Amino acid sequence: MPRIRRPLSPRLGTALVIGAVAAIALAGFATTHVAPSASQLATSSGTPSVSATAQAAPGPGALDDGPEADGTSGRPAASGAGNEPLAAGGTGPTPSPTAARPASESDEALAAGITPFPESPVADYQVGVTYDPAPGVNLVVRTATAFPEHGLYNVCAVNAFQTQRADVDFWLSNNRDLLLWDASGAPLADPDAPGEYILDISTSAKRGRIAEIQTRELRACVARGFQAVELDNLDSYTRSGGAFDLGAASAFAALLTAKAHALGMPIGQKNTPELGWAGSDEIGFDFAVAEDCIADQNCSAFTDVYGTRVIGLEYTDRTADFALVCNDPRRPSSTLLRDRALRGPGTPGYTAERCTTWPAL
């Protein structure tokens, strides 16, 4: 569910790559994203290729990601009007360069069967209520339990780092050791999402087991006809009470990225600007969904890395003048204003405004 997020600046370190590779071997994934060395990153003039192998979609997942109780967060693309200064991008293990590199989909990934994420998305974000997209929209984000929109590019939203409310019994009955527990002996819940419990990805063994379970969601997305997937709650480490850090979250994301690519789907980073270039170069993300990046002044942490392949979501509770947002040249080219509850059309409070022109320079 959408939340107000603040940028942090933890360090990943080389343990990220080692942990990700070890966990991938444990989980038995046949396809991996190999991170370049620090020296390679420093001298590279482009984004590394993403290894991917297209496979036939297995059956629907055994787990069902139900829609969020409070709705959607949407976004199309285009330009607009705006003027809020933005800070430089996040600082991960790979610092953002002073000049942004062009981000492009690798030819190898496309040749392997991945349908590329649109370079100029005009998106709607329907993670709760689904409805007919507005004219001009070419991309829609929905949960695995929803149906894709015919004729559009469809992104499947998966709550990979926390439990879905509808699946709590599954985790409590069969996988209690894969949940975090608080001092009172209760499963550790996300304070902003009651009923969602934080998954324990603190060790490579647990990451491997959880990845196999969450891969059922990825398979369900493929079976339903989605072309790509985005991972929600990548920042759950900030709510883990110190049980795990950004390095563990990144290693787990690398497992799911490898699996998504093996299933023929690009995969998106959700928030977490502190990853910087590591999101693409080390984990293997292909695009990003950035909430409140204008409000938090960190849009460049996403746009420097993914170029126009960023879906920007601003919310009415933090944005007084959307025209200023749209006129800011540092915003994602695809930027949308939504109500925080992500209501559907016809519901009081529903808001879905899109930037439709390039910023005035």
UniProtKB/TrEMBL annotation:
PANTHER family: ALPHA-1,4 POLYGALACTOSAMINIDASE, PUTATIVE (AFU_ORTHOLOGUE AFUA_3G07890)-RELATED, ALPHA-GALACTOSIDASE
Region (Disordered): 40-108
Entry-linked InterPro entries: Aldolase_TIM, GH, GH114_TIM-barrel
Keyword Ion transport: no
One Pfam family recorded for the sequence: Glyco_hydro_114
GO molecular function: hydrolase activity
Superkingdom of origin organism: Bacteria
Compositional bias annotation for Polar residues: 40-54
Name this polypeptide is given: Glycoside-hydrolase family GH114
Keyword vocabulary terms for this entry: Hydrolase
